[in-house]
């Protein structure tokens, strides 16, 4: 998929401006950002639920996305949630591997918090 100069306006409000990127087949990506910055709008454009004001989307494959839905237990720590989700998705929890990912993603401060 290739996104070329995609912009989206609602009236005089510019939601997206000249967005450009390419994704390879089979690639899985995450889109993160503050509320109100256009993440949902961009996703709706990518799956053709909304049309851009300008720009092009070139795609020969189907695109799927998972909308925001809380998957964490507020009564459990970050580590407990991580272990639960690992098990749910059939991933063996390996302290060394996950520890390095936790550090790389700067999540250490949350791992023991509920």
UniProtKB/TrEMBL annotation:
GO molecular function terms listed in the Swiss-Prot or TrEMBL record: ATP binding; ATP hydrolysis activity
Q: What protein name is recorded for this chain?
A: ATP-binding protein BexA domain protein
Domain ABC transporter: residue ranges: 16-110
Q: Which InterPro entries match?
A: ABC_transporter-like_ATP-bd, ABC_Transporter_VariousFunc, P-loop_NTPase
Q: What UniProt keywords apply to this chain's record, in alphabetical order?
A: ATP-binding, Nucleotide-binding, Transport
Q: Does the keyword ATP-binding apply?
A: yes
A single Pfam family, by name? ABC_tran
């Amino acid at each position: 998929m290739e996104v070329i100069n995609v912009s989206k306006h609602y009236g005089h409000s510019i939601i997206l401006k000249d967005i450009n990127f390419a994704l390879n087949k089979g690639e899985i990506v995450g889109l993160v950002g503050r509320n109100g910055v256009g993440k949902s709008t961009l996703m709706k454009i990518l799956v053709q639920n909304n049309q851009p004001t300008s720009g092009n989307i070139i795609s020969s494959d189907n695109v799927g996305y998972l909308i925001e839905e809380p998957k964490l237990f507020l009564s459990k720590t970050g580590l407990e949630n991580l272990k639960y989700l690992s098990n749910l998705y059939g991933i063996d929890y390996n302290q060394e591997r996950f520890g390095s990912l936790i550090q790389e993603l700067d999540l250490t401060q949350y791992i023991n918090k509920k």
